[in-house]
Amino acid sequence: MTRAAVLPSLRTPLRVQDIDIPEPGPAHVRVRLAAAGVCHSDLSLSDGTLRQPVPAVLGHEGSGTVTAVGDGVTGIAPGDSVILNWAPSCGRCHYCGLGEPWLCARAGDAAALPYATLTADGRALYPGLGTAAFAEETVVPAHAVLPLPDGVPLTDAALLGCAVLTGYGAVHHSARVRPGESVAVFGVGGVGLAALQAARIAGAGAIVAVDVSPEKEALARAAGATEFVVTGDGDGDRDAAPAKRIRALTGGHGADVAVECVGRADTIRTAWSATRRGGRTTVVGIGGKDQQVTFSALELFYFGRTLSGCVYGNSDPARDLPVLADHIRAGRLDLSAMVTERIGLDGIPAAFDAMLAGRGGRALVVF
C-alpha cells in the first residue's frame, strides 16, 4: 500500500488516497519516488485538454530509487537512482527509424493500461503519461527509467524528466539558437525557466522573458533574462503590445528566436509577430484544440518566418541527459533555482491553482 494523489474523474480535485501497486512484472521496474514536479501538462490531463483515462494517478516529471525489477530486466538494479521518462521510445516505429524518438508512435502505450488499484474499493487506476509520479511509489516499463548521472542531486533531478529536457531541447534542438542571437521566451514557468537558462548556455545576446506576472522578473533574470516584459491589458506596467516592445529591445528588428511556453493562440501569434523577418518561433506550450492561430498568406510570404511545434524539446533523453549533467556539474544549469515551492502530495491542488493564476516557477513534490 502506498499514498498517491488520485484524479477520480476529469475536472475534479485530486485526492490523496491509499493505492495498491503490484510487484513489477516482466520488463517492468518499481520505483520509490524522491520528488515529482508539478507540470502544466498534469493540469491539461486533469481537465481533459489531453486525453487521460480515469481514475488516474498523474505526475510525469519524477526521480527516485529502483526498489525491485521484473523478469528480463537488465542494466537496472534495486538501489539505482533513476529519472522517469514519460515518453520512452520503442526504437522500432517509423519515427524512431527516422531518428526522431520524441515522436515515437508507441510512447504513450503505458498510459492506456491500468497499473494499480484503489485500496478502498479495488478500482483500477491508470498511470498519467505512463509514469504516475504523484505517488510514493510507482511501477513503470523498464525503458521508462533513465540512470541518474553522477553529480546530480536526486531530488532536483526530477525536473530533468520534463521541464529541463523540454526547455533546453526547444532552444538547442528545435530553434537551434546560435551565439549572439536574440531570444524571447514567453511564459516563465518551469519550462520557460529552463529555456532561459538554455538560451544563456547557447550564448544568446538579448534574452527577453515575457510573462503576465511582474513578480516573476527576479526569477527570470536569475535564469538568464537580460530584459523582462510584463504582458497584459496595457494598464499600469503591463504592455498591451509585447511584440512591439520586443522589437524595440532588439534593435527594431524583432527577436531572432521566440520560444512559446504557454500554449495559447494569442501568445503563439504574438511570439511569431515578435520575431524579425526570417525569425524562428518554437511552440512548446500545449493548447486546446479550440485554440486556433491564423495568418494571412501575404504575411507568411513577406516575413519569411518559421513556426514549428516542439514535442519534449525534440530531445533524446539518452543522448541529452549526459550533456545536461555536464552543465549542472559546471554550474551553468541550476535546477534548484527553478523550484519556487516544495510541497507534499496534498499541496498539488494549490500548485494547480498557482499555475492557472500564473504564479511561481516549478512546484516540486518532495517525498
Would you give an account of this structure?
The protein is an alpha/beta fold and 367 residues long. The chain contains ten helices and 18 strands. It has helices spanning 40-46, 94-97, 163-174, 190-201, 217-223, 242-249, 265-273, 297-303, 317-329, 348-357, and strands at residues 2-7, 15-20, 28-38, 56-57, 61-69, 81-84, 116-118, 124-127, 137-141, 145-147, 183-186, 207-211, 227-230, 255-260, 275-283, 306-309, 339-343, 362-366. Strands 3, 5, 6, 9, 10, 17 and 18 form a seven-stranded mixed β-sheet that branches. Strand 12 (207-211), helix 5 and strand 13 (227-230) form a beta-alpha-beta unit. Helix 3 (163-174) packs across helix 4. The longest helix is centred in the last third of the chain and has 13 residues, at 317-329.
Write out key terms for the chains shown.
single chain; 367 residues; alpha/beta; 7-stranded mixed beta sheet; 6-stranded parallel beta sheet; 18 strands; 24% helix; globular
Computed Rg: 20 Å
Number of strands: 18
Order of helices and strands: EEEHEEEHEEEEHEHEHEHEHEHEHEHE
Strand content: 25-35%
Q: What's the gist of this structure?
A:
The chain is of the alpha/beta class and 367 residues long. Helix content is 24%, strand content 26%. Strand 1 and strand 2 form a beta hairpin.
